[in-house]
Amino acid sequence: MIFCEEADTEETVTCLHMTFYHPCQDDKMMFRCLNFCEREQVRANEIATFGRDSNICRYNLMDSRVSRIQFSLQFYRKLDTSEFCFEIKNMSKKTKLRVDHTELGYLNKVDLPWKCIICFGDYQILTETQEGQSMDYYETYFRLAQMPLLQERCLSSPQPVPECGIFTSLSLPQDKSPKEIDENES
Description:
InterPro entries: FHA_dom, SMAD_FHA_dom_sf, TIFA. By secondary structure, the protein is mainly beta. The chain has helices at 2-6, 25-28; strands spanning 15-21, 39-43, 48-51, 59-60, 71-77, 84-90, 97-99, 102-104, 109-111, 115-120, 123-130, 137-144. Helices cover 5% and strands 34% of the residues. Residues 152-162 and 164-177 have low confidence and may be disordered.
C-alpha cells in the first residue's frame, strides 16, 4: 500500500494529431518524408516548421509549389493556466494560409483551435489536439487521408440530392416533377 502512495504519477503528453490530404498525393508523393502512424516526440521549446526546405524544416513536403517554410507551430502554455496550446504562423510570402475560416497572410499568427482544418493551395490538414500535462515535450501523430477533408470541395454538382440519395434522371419530365403538398393532404 505504501508503494502505491509514493509512486510517481504518470504524466500525460499533449499530442497533435494531423491528417494530411492532397489530390495528387498518389502521383507526386509529396508526403513521402513524413512518418505516418508513429508518435514522434518534439521538445516543447522547439518550433515545428513545415515546408519544402529540408535544411530548415522539421517536416518536409516534397512539392516545388510549397514555400521553403510554409508554416510553423509553436507549443506554449496559456498565461495563468495549466492549459497547453499551439500557435500557428504563416511563413509563406506567396501563399495565404487558412485555419478554418481565418485567413493568415505572411507572418500572421493565431491560436490553433483544438480541432480545425488548415488549408493552403490544394493541401488540407486536419489537426486535433489531445491534451496533456507535460511541459518538456509534446508528440505529433500523422495520418494520410485518401479522401478530401473538406466536404464542400467534394460536391461536384450544386443540384440537391433526394432523400433516397438516388438520382434516376437529371432532368425530370414536367408531369413527374416533385410537387409540394401539405402533410394533411393525401
